[in-house]
Amino acid sequence: MNRFFTGETPEDGKIRITGSDVNHIKNVLRMQPGDRILVNNGHETEYSGRILEINKEDVLVEITDERPTDTELPVKIYLYQGLPKKDKMELIVQKSVELGAYAIVPVEMKRCVVKLEDAKKEEKKLERWQTIAKSASEQSTRGMIPEVCHAKKYKEAMEEALKAGDVIIPYENAEGITALKNVLASLKEKVKDNKSDEKPVLSVFIGPEGGFDEAEIEYALERGAKTVSLGKRILRTETAGLTTLSIIMYELES
User: Do 131 and 233 lie in a common domain?
Assistant: First the structure.
């Protein structure tokens, strides 16, 4: 069954789909009134229903069933990604959404080849990345659409992450994988003991193609971040974050 996100609130047992999905439903899928459809409100609630009307600006759906989604991790994982070259960020956004990231934050670091210079170009990139995140959320049956945030400078991003919760940095010079095991064990305990509606937060910092500058690592460690190893091999920037997310997903869902 086709599945779509909407920012609309149900009213009188009905919900509307707006935006670019209207054209997709009407002209690509060629759906008709009476067809069955799934609608997610972006807040971990999914509605089953049937199409009542297909208009120029929206699609009206009659709700027949409502249920909470169960595809979200019990922890909010923020992926802080050092800006990579070319179109690698598109792959990173797509796959990290599929693996359960709560949000993706592009970060300008010392060894990034890509720099934040043209505001208009950056805004276009952000729109593209957010579209990819939405598509990946629909494909992977997420209960929400992760936000791809505006790019930040390294120190600003690090301070933001440390205020929100724990921070780990996969780093080629970290020794052994014990540190990562300990972080995940602690995280599982936090999930187990959590009695509030607010989920614990874990931020993951990934360096760009050139890796982290030593001063960046020192800055993070002095403020409470932890470096962790992903094994004996050095991974590409587009691989490191996805590997980390896969390990976290496995541990939290096992």
Answer: yes
State the total domains in the chain: 2
Domain final position from 28, 50, 68: 68
3-state secondary structure the chain: CCEEECCCCCECCEEEEECHHHHHHHHHCCCCCCCEEEEECCCCEEEEEEEEEECCCEEEEEEEEEEECCCCCCCEEEEEEECCCCCHHHHHHHHHHHCCCCEEEEEECCCCCCCCCCHHHHHHHHHHHHHHHHHHHHHCCCCCCCEECCCEEHHHHHHHHHHHCEEEEECCCCCCCHHHHHHHHHHHHHHHHCCCCCCCEEEEEECCCCCCCHHHHHHHHHCCCEEECCCCCCCCHHHHHHHHHHHHHHHHHC
Burial of 43 (0-12, 13-18, 19+ CB in 10 A): exposed
List the one residue out of 222, 116, 111 whose CA is nearest residue 172. Answer: 111
Tell me which residue range forms the domain holding 58. 3-68
Same domain, 123 and 240: yes
CATH of the domain at 21: 2.40.240.20
What pLDDT sits at residue 60? 96
Kindly list the distances between the CA atom of residue 145 and the CA atoms of 11, 52, 100, 191, in Å, as whole numbers in the listed order: 22, 25, 10, 22
- Name the stretches of the chain with pLDDT < 70: none
Domain identity same for 92 and 144: yes
* CATH code of the domain covering residue 135: 3.40.1280.10
Tell me the CA distances in angstroms from 70 to 9, 22, 74, 86, one per residue in order. 20, 26, 10, 35
pTM, 2 dp: 0.91
